[in-house]
Amino acid sequence: MVDRPDLGALFAHVTRRLVDAETPILAAHALTMWEYVALSALEREAAPTQLVLARTIRYDKTRLIALLDGLETRGLVTRHPDPADRRARVVSLTADGVRVLAEARTDIRAMEEGVLGELDAAERTVLLRALPRLAEPA
């Protein structure tokens, strides 16, 4: 007997819905989803190395260089040698990176309000409290 869809299927549908809604918002800010993910991670703290950033955002390290090259060319991030290891590059947001990220996030939050508006206040509160806990690594 099937009492409900599997969580993976439910999350996949919700994720697809949100990605489909976010993609044009990010495009309006000249960002890809992965660029937004990288900028968001760097907002929390500079990445001590490009490898750490790749692992943090779960992105292929061989493709990260091209992604960072584009962000750096546009003045959204900087990379400089780590004083402790000149072979490693510390990646940081620039002021423009902070601004572009904030503008994109404002528009994404407005879209999310529309999606979350389908829930009553109690459902919304529970969802927003529970999701971060589920998103943590096991």
TrEMBL record:
It comes from Luteimicrobium album. PANTHER family: MARR FAMILY REGULATORY PROTEIN, TRANSCRIPTIONAL REGULATOR, MARR FAMILY. InterPro entries: HTH_MarR-typ, MarR/SlyA-like, WH-like_DNA-bd_sf, WH_DNA-bd_sf. This is MarR family transcriptional regulator. The lineage of its organism: Bacteria, Bacillati, Actinomycetota, Actinomycetes, Micrococcales. It holds the Pfam family MarR_2. Residues 4-136 form the HTH marR-type domain.
